[in-house]
Amino acid sequence: MRHKRSKRLISILGVAISILLPIVVLEVWTSHVTSGVMVARFIAEFILAVLAVQVGIVLWKPRSSKMIIEDVLIATASGIGAFIAAKLSLAQGGAPVDPGLLALLTAYILWLWPHPHRRL
Fold it and tell me: Which positions, given as ranges, span the membrane (predicted)?
């Protein structure tokens, strides 16, 4: 009985970490990084958000390193796409884009999306 409770507690802790850690990491990251539209900033925020979610997932259920690498590569491509969209928006006279929110949404989508269905 204790084993089931501890396993359930670890699962709950893993889910909580997957939800809260990316928010904390991105908040700390954006407080130390200057503003501006830089491709490195976009990519870094997307990768940090995905890796922060992966910490909770590892506690919750085991994942192979191939899945984690796949998620990081998808996040990198998403970061580049978001950078291009932000540059186009600024060129058209639009407001600056916060990459942190986009990175957070991407990390949560990659977390919830079942892995076998998105093999490249």
Answer: 12-30, 42-60, 72-90, 96-113
Instruction: Give CA–CA dist 46/113, Å, rounded.
Output: 16
Residue 77: other Cβ atoms inside 10 A = 13
Q: Are 115 and 67 in contact (CB under 8 A)?
A: yes
Q: pLDDT digits over 4-62, tens only?
A: 778 888 888 888 999 999 999 999 988 887 766 688 889 999 999 999 999 988 887 77
| CA distance readout (Å), 98 to 37, 44, 109 | 9, 13, 18
Q: How far apart are CA 2 and CA 80, in angstroms?
A: 47
Instruction: Give the distance from CA 97 to its chain's centroid.
Output: 17
pTM of the entire predicted model: 0.83
Asked if residues 103 and 43 have their Cβ atoms less than 8 Å apart, the reply is: no
